[in-house]
Amino acid sequence: MKQRLAKESGEKIVELIRKNVKPSSILTKAAFENAVVVDTALGGSTNTVLHLSAIAREAGVSLPIMTFDDISRKVPHLCSMVPSGLYDMEELHNAGGLPALMKELKQFLHPNALTVTCKTVNENIAHVTVANAVVIRPLSNPVHKEGGIVILKGNLAPKGGVVKAVAVSANMLKHSGPAKVYESEKEAEEAMKNHEVKAGDVVVIRYEGPKGGPGMPEMLIPTATISGMGLSESVALITDGRFSGATRGPCIGHVAPEAAEGGPIAVVKNGDTITIDIPNRLLKVELSDQEIKKRLESWTPKPKKITKGYLSRYTPTPTE
Fold it and tell me: Distance (Å, rounded) from C-alpha 14 to C-alpha 75?
C-alpha cells in the first residue's frame, strides 16, 4: 500500500512539474473561497479563520475576515459533525466524503479553480454522488440555514470576534449577562474549579491573544470545563485567544484588538453587562463610548510574560 501511494504521489509531482503548476497556481483567491465554502457547510472549527488567513497571506492573497461571514450567510450547514453534531469522519467518508459534499455545494464554488490533482474542482466532482443524504444533507434540507462560522462586531470587538454558530444552542444565540473577568486561562480555570462561574455569566479571558499569550494558546480547558459543569446552555465565554475544534456553546474567540494591544476587552470590569447577538452579528459591552475611552486612557500595557526565546518575538515591550 505504501509503495503504491508513494508511486502515485511521485507520478502526481511529475505531472505537476510537466504542466508547470506551481503552488501559486493552486493557492488562488478562488481556492481559498472554495475552502471557506466547504468548511462552513461542515460546521468546521474557528481555527479555520486563523489557518486560512495565514496561508492566504503567505500566498499573497487577500482574504478579509468578513469573507467568512459573507459566505456563511449564504452557504447552509449540511453536515452534523462531532463533537457538536452526530456523525464522525468515517461516516462522512462513507457518505461520499468531501467530493460528494462539494458536488452538493457546486453552485457556491468556483468550479474552474485548479487543484492538486491537476484537475479543476469541476473535473474532480463530475462523477461523484452522495451515498447518504442523512450525513451529507441536500441544500433543500440543511442542518442549519446558515453556515458554521460567524463574525461578530461591536464596541467590544471593533475588528471582529469569531464564533462557531452551529455549535450554539438556540436559546444562547442571544444572551446578555454580567462579565466575570480573568487575566489568563489559568486564572479562569481556577475560578471555575472554585465554582465562581454561575449560570447567566459571561466569562471574559484576556491577554491570551497572539501578543498577549504570547502565540494565541488554545483555550480547550475552559470551554471543556464549562461544558462539563453543565453550563454550556447558560454561560458564554469571550476571549482574545483561540479555541480547539471541539468548541461547543457560545464561545467567542479571536476578539480584536486583543487586550495586549489595548483593545476594549482590556478594560472590561466584573459586573459589566455584555450582550451577544449572533443572528445580528453583535458583540458589545453595555458602556458608552465615553466610558470606554476614559478607561482606555488610564489603561497601561502589561509587562511581557516571556522575555527571551522564540515566543518573545510575538510581543513588543510596553515601551514599543
Answer: 36
